[in-house]
Design brief:
The chain is α/β, with parallel strands linked by helices and 287 residues long. The protein is built from eleven helices and 14 strands. Helix 3 crosses helix 9.
């Protein structure tokens, strides 16, 4: 009887261990590269619409800085930049959708922070763009500094680093304000244009793009203050090293190519170059 109980106990313990291993494997060993190759397309999470970064036209064709990076990843894997599918994501869903594998990569103006890496089990391979939070106001307010925004009603997108930066900046400078938070950027911009608030805050790159969408863009100005440092980076899941390495070195290769003046238009000349840096970039020298 004792032997039976001992055997049963060991069997249950092994079953629990196997189950735990299976859960851990499912969670961490994502094998994104294998699934991407099998699917023959990179699933790329992008902003729902941000001029200069990711914007669809009326035919569903995407363009922009973040969009082009995902095309580069597709080219690195398939030698074909067209093998990519764009999935528009709001700020409040982007990390969870990456976690749940709805997308393979997030290329969507996302600030790299330690808390995001640790809280969501994600990894930011490298910085693609340096940005910072700022403010847009109607010119009629005749304000030339963010420190003069005392008593302002500020439209901000909820659940973003911008919301945190706004609170930090005004608290540090003893400036009182009223926060008007919205679920997405479009709602915040519409509220600002409808005069529900007299100040709009977002990353500076977004402010210049969003100002163009206002019916009277010339009536609004962007203050010179940049109140934060926002290292924007592509995002992938942790514990998926093969995939992370491809994303990281695709970005580094593009940065090096820009510095060296190598483009798709002069690649044939670059392949004949005798400059060491160019030769290593295009693969005619070294490993």
């Amino acid at each position: 009887m004792r032997t039976f109980r001992t055997g049963l106990f060991i069997g249950v313990a092994i079953a629990v261990m196997v189950g735990a291993f299976a859960i851990t494997y499912e969670r961490y060993d994502t094998k994104t590269l294998k699934r991407t190759i099998r699917r023959e397309a990179v699933l790329c999470g992008v902003n729902t619409g941000l001029p200069g970064f990711s914007t669809p036209d009326d035919k569903g064709n995407w363009s922009g800085f973040d969009v082009d990076f995902c095309r580069a990843v597709a080219a690195a894997i398939f030698d074909d930049p067209k093998k990519v599918q764009f999935v528009p994501l709001e700020a409040n869903e982007r990390f969870k959708e990456l976690q749940s594998r709805k997308v393979d990569i997030l290329s969507r103006n996302s600030t790299w922070s330690m808390s995001r890496e640790t809280s969501y089990d994600l990894y930011f391979p490298a910085v693609a763009y340096y940005d910072g939070a700022g403010f847009m106001i109607p010119k009629s307010r005749s304000i030339d500094s963010a420190l003069a925004l005392e008593g302002s009603k500020v439209c901000v997108q909820e659940g973003t680093m911008t919301q945190l930066n706004l609170a930090d900046y005004f608290r540090a400078n003893n400036v009182k304000y009223q926060e008007m938070k919205f679920g997405n950027l479009d709602e915040a911009l519409k509220a600002y244009e409808a005069n529900q608030c007299d100040t709009f805050t977002s990353d500076v790159s977004q402010l210049y793009a969003l100002r163009l969408r206002l019916s009277k863009a010339g009536d609004h100005e962007i203050l010179p203050d940049v109140i934060s440092k926002e290292p924007l980076a592509p995002v992938v899941r942790q514990r998926d090293d093969d995939w992370m390495m491809i994303v990281k070195w695709t970005l580094y290769a593009m940065i090096n190519a820009e510095e060296l003046g190598v483009t798709s238009k002069n690649i044939d000349e670059a392949l004949k170059s005798k400059k060491a840096d160019v030769m290593r970039l295009v693969g005619t020298e070294g490993a």
